[in-house]
Specification:
Elements lengths: L3 E8 L3 E3 L18 H9 E7 H4 L8 H4 L6 E4 L16 E4 L3 H12 L3 E5 L1 H9 L5 E7 L7 E2 L11 E9 L2 E8 L4
Parallel strand pairs: 1-6, 1-7, 3-4, 3-6, 4-5
Antiparallel strand pairs: 2-8, 7-10, 9-10
Length: about 180
């Protein structure tokens, strides 16, 4: 059965977006499309769970088909599905889940088969950790300081989550850290 890997890239000071919502400074050619790092992530991913804010970062939702690195079923946790569904194909489909993170993860695990479910987006990652749904936490640390912005953590509801480091490696300028979640809340 699919494992759930929650996480994303963040600055050294813990932000996943700058004060204007930008993420460009967190990117690295070593972790972009075509890199060994991204090729491995794509190979291990069977489904993705996103929050509505992360989904809406694409100016045109039809862009995802053929362009987004993960051409797999995507489950978007939202209170309000879009009136017009985005483009989909035989590889990339969208399901807008209105009944919470647990439902989204359950559906994504069924779709992923024996590959991993990636949970992406600051709020969505925190929700998965708080609900005890994540098997692993993956954080790519970019060598930048943003000073302010959208934090990945900083949630008192995460107090008590214990982690065990299972991998640490360099991918260009990015440091990838992987942790097993030992005691889901």
């Amino acid at each position: 059965m699919a494992q759930v890997h929650a996480g994303m890239a963040m600055s050294l000071d813990g932000f996943v977006a700058d004060r204007h919502g930008g993420t460009a400074r967190l990117s690295s050619p070593a972790t972009s499309a075509g890199s060994d790092h991204m090729t491995e992530l794509i190979r291990e991913t069977g489904a993705v769970v996103l929050g509505r804010r992360t989904y809406a970062m694409a100016a045109d939702p039809d862009w995802y088909v053929g362009n987004y690195e993960f051409q797999v079923p995507i489950f978007v946790v939202t209170h309000t599905p879009p009136e017009v569904p985005p483009a989909q194909d035989e590889h990339l489909t969208f399901t807008f889940v209105t009944d919470g993170i647990a439902s989204a993860v359950t559906q994504a695990k069924a779709a992923a088969g024996d590959r991993a479910v990636k949970v992406i987006g600051a709020s969505t990652v925190r929700q998965a950790l708080r609900a005890g749904l994540a098997d692993e936490l993956h954080v790519d640390i970019a060598p930048v300081l943003l000073g302010a912005g959208l934090p990945l953590f900083g949630d008192p509801g995460l107090d008590g989550v214990a982690l065990r480091r299972i991998a640490a490696r360099e991918a260009g300028g990015i440091t990838e850290l992987r942790f097993e979640v030992l005691n889901p809340i």
